[in-house]
Amino acid sequence: MTRSGQAATTPSGGKLTPMFRQWQQAKRQHPDALLFFRMGDFYELFFDDARTAAPILGIALTSRGKGTATSAPMCGVPHHAARNYIARLVKAGHRVAVCEQMEDPKKAKGMVRREVVRVVSPGTLVDADQLDPGSGNYLACLAGQAPGPWGLCLVDLSTGGMVLARAGNEPALAEVLSRYEVRELLVASTSAATLEALLGRHGLGEVLLTTLDDSLFEPLLARDRVVEQLQVASLAGFGCEDDHPALPATAAALAHLQRTQRVQPAHLDRLRVEDPRRILLLDRSSRRNLEVVANLRDGGRSQTLLEALDATLTPLGARALRTWLLEPLVEKNAILARHAVVEALVQRAEVRASLREALREIRDLERLLSRAALRRSTPHDLAALRRSLAALPEVREALAGLTAPDATALAARIDLLEDLLGELGAGLADEPGAAPGEGRVIREGYDADLDAVRELARGSRELIAGIETREREATGIASLKIKYNKVFGYFLEVSKANLSRVPPEWERRQTIATGERYVTAEIKDLEARILSASERLAEREKALFEKLVDQVVAQAGRVRETAAAIAEADVLAGFAEVAAREGYVRPSLAEDDRIEIRDGRHPVVERLLEPGRFVPNDCLLDDKRRLLIVTGPNMGGKSTYLRQAALIVLMAQAGAFVPARSARISLVDRIFCRVGASDNLAGGESTFMVEMTETANILHNATPRSLVILDEIGRGTATWDGMAIAWAVVEHLLRDTRLRPKALFATHYHELTELAARHEGLENVHITVREHGQEVVFLHRVEPGPSDRSYGIHVARLAGLPDAVITRAWEILEEISGEHLADKLGRDRDGVRQLSLFESPAGEPEPSPEEAQALAALRECDPDDLSPRQAHELLYRLIGLLGGQSSTTR
User: Fold this and answer.
1) Cβ–Cβ under 8 Å, residues 568 and 324
2) 571: CB partners within 8 A, 6+ apart
3) Burial (CB count <10 Å: 0-12, 13-18, 19+), residue 318
4) Predicted local confidence at residue 833, as pLDDT
5) Sequence-ordered list of residues with C-beta below 8 angstroms from that of 875, at least 6 positions apart, any chain
6) Cα dist from 522 to 499, 506, 507, 529, 770, whole Å
7) Which residues pair with 38 in a beta bridge?
8) Which end is more exposed in the chain, N or C (fewer Cβ atoms within 10 Å of the end residue's Cβ)?
9) Phi, psi angle pair for 579, to nearest 5°
10) Which residues contact 655 (CB under 8 A, 6 or more apart)?
């Protein structure tokens, strides 16, 4: 976990200067933040803040007052580039307090007043250039004590999203934090040490931990604080009960945000209560193994399901798509509604094209609104909002033209916001400057007072030109020019060759290499008038711009509802575009307990191959085929086959079309995916321990409605131990009536294929190959029945092992294969042949009547139905039948 630097040290000895006293006062308010202290055109950092920031920012560490009693280490950055420097510090896991000059230094009497205007941290970023447009940026606040239960409030300040969630125990808490990719965690100060250790155990050490005063979590005041923020009388309309465990966390988060942002976050006016029963649950391990939004190679989005399905055109849609893939639906009607819109858009290519063309014009409405609410808007933000609102009619018209009922409902949710668009059109310049006072921001004709000041400024420029012409004629200095800079204001510049012609009444201001600079009484008077007009112009533009921002914030609810509808339309249009391009089909939702995929394809792997190269395969899971044992060669495609089944189900329940000739999907409540080898060194877990932990999670939490994907269970330990574990896992999945999920189980333990003869609901399938001597061709076709070989040496050759190693491997394999293998591995140290897992002893005499009776007694008993006393008695009975010694003492 990353923490900000500690509070800076004080100067060693000597009396603090007024400036340092002011700095120290601001630092005390935010001891855990790096203080950006505005001094003129720079932000300065002092003491420990400077020592921490300088190497991260790659700037020089200097000293203020070097050699004096008040010497202080310092570094600084230009104010106009501060955003980039702050972003680098936040990315490094620090928080930054920005202390601004609150008055004009020219007008200040004594020390310039300074205040901290905001605190920037990983969880409070709102600037577009510091955020991934396709991902949320969540800050979480946690209420409760270890080991749980906990209540969580998850806030995305950049979009206005606010979610309430529960976590019953430590793994559930880590799961929620992981799913939302939380950047910063707020906790009560008394819980900090416990939570820091928890984050480390679960691989969440990069989350910034921020401690708050325990009083902010007061449960008796929490509901009233939240109700006040939402401007409602009751929380029932949000599906939230008054005693929800996340309410204290919500109140604390709101108080923290108001304190650090120095403004009421008015855009946080909605909340969503998370209900795990309404979504298909994907735990952290399954999301990772299926590579839903991040790949296993480097954690990026390339070669993921997200990348394969992302045809969105707006940041709103990109974030919504990510959420839909991480939280697929389990409600049939909601899924069918999404499928119907996608189907309508697939069938109406011209409508889809029109809709997508209009969507291209829409910017990030949520984040534009958030910056407005936090008073961070720029004129360019409002111009982007205006452009987006102008495109809404085309979006609504395209959706309304579709026959799907949900498309019509979606169109109705899009508020055209014509009043706001009209105000922005009337008030904002066509191409506004970067800020009020830096280029024209407000349209001419919008405000009479502003127009009058502008006219004065225009007239002043004409007066300057007139003075310049007149003085040239009066002095005969043809090269004479009137110039301006911030230090000297307006002045007359004369070259050295013409200095003899300068009138005596001109006042010299500055000597330069090429001549001299002068002022006159007339120029001084004109400068005062121009500067006054410029100040009034900037002030008036700023006031009018802020008025426009206020009008945007006043329509926050309408803007947010429209943004949500646009996001949904964008995702559905993207699904349709991908379906039309890739040949995906609409899945049907089965009423019975059956998953039937015909010619299914892996949506990611297929895109990596040349067209037509991917080999499609069927997959059938129902009550008679609950579990498939998948065998076959390495590189044959077992993992691809397993994953594609899970991804097709996930896509169907997210509302997308699927890569198959046909798909009949029985809705599942959870998808578990345990594949590959990974460790958790930070948590002290080996590769095999991670494998067993993930398997245990499946066996404890799967239900008959779950889909389980298991690849190579037991490979991380000794062969016989691993096979025994894999065997027991398969039997448990089939026998435990609380489980019995639909499952695909890939293995190299060919002995497990014999389980199909012993258990109903289990069948074997294998990946086919074609052999030519010592060469093989992987056909990637899944067919019924077991495979008898793994073709590992063939794969080793393909991997480039030296020929000598390959040749020796074939010799060893031949030596230990067949009966010789049985001789080598099937006898114990005394030469007695051991039994395999399933075979019966050969050449042994028939069992005696007593032995037969003992075997019959074992077959007939059900260990789960025996009491301890009954089990004890059965054991003694068996010992007696087999001629062993038994005590009569109980």
Assistant:
1) no
2) 312, 317, 320, 321, 324, 655
3) buried
4) 46
5) none
6) 20, 10, 11, 11, 98
7) 43
8) C
9) -60, -45
10) 324, 328, 329, 335, 338, 339, 342, 571, 572, 575
Backbone phi and psi for residue 256, each to the nearest 5 degrees, phi listed first: -65, -45
Residue 656 CB neighbour total at 10 angstroms: 31
Give the single-character DSSP code of 857: H
Q: How far is CA 882 from the centre of its chain?
A: 64
CB distance 769 to 633 below 8 Å: yes
Most confident of 61-65, 498-502, 799-803: 498-502
Residue 265 vs residues 49, 199, 230, 367, 369: alpha-carbon distances, Å: 28, 28, 10, 13, 11
Count CB atoms within 10 A of the CB of residue 756.
17
> From residue 436, how far is each of 23, 103, 381 by CA, in Å?
29, 17, 13
The DSSP line for 365-405 is HHHHHHHHHTT---HHHHHHHHHHHHHHHHHHHHHHTSS-H
The neighbouring-strand residues paired with 685 are 680
CA–CA distance, 653 with 333 (Å, rounded to integer)? 11
Query: Is residue 481 within a helix (H) or strand (E), and if so which, with residue range?
Result: strand 481-485
C-alpha span between 172 and 181 (Å, rounded) = 14
Helical packing angle, 556-582 and 349-359, nearest 10°: 140
Type of residue found at 492: L
Tokens of 287: 């999301």
Terminal-to-terminal C-alpha distance of the chain? 58
Q: Using CA atoms, how far apart are residues 629 and 840, in angstroms rounded to an integer?
A: 23
| Cα 551 from Cα 555, distance rounded (Å) | 7
Could you give the CA distance from residue 65 to residue 62 in angstroms, rounded to a whole number? 10
In angstroms, the CA 473 to CA 496 distance is 18
Beta strands in 47-149 (DSSP E): 62-64, 72-78, 96-101, 114-120, 139-143
Residue with tokens 């031949």: 814
> What pTM did the predictor assign?
0.83
Using DSSP, state whether 153 is helix, strand or coil: strand
Number of alpha helices (DSSP H) and beta strands (DSSP E) in the chain: 28, 27
Q: Which pLDDT score, from 0 to 100, does residue 838 have?
A: 46
Tell me what the mean pLDDT of segment 121-129 comes to: 92
DSSP code for 10? P
Q: What are 884's two structure tokens?
A: 């062993």
77 within 8 A of 85, measured Cβ to Cβ: yes
Sort 433 into a burial class: Cβ within 10 Å, 0-12 / 13-18 / 19+.
middle
Q: Inform me whether the pLDDT recorded for 191 exceeds 60.
A: yes
Residue 545 tokens read as: 């711009």
Q: What is the mean pLDDT of the chain?
A: 88
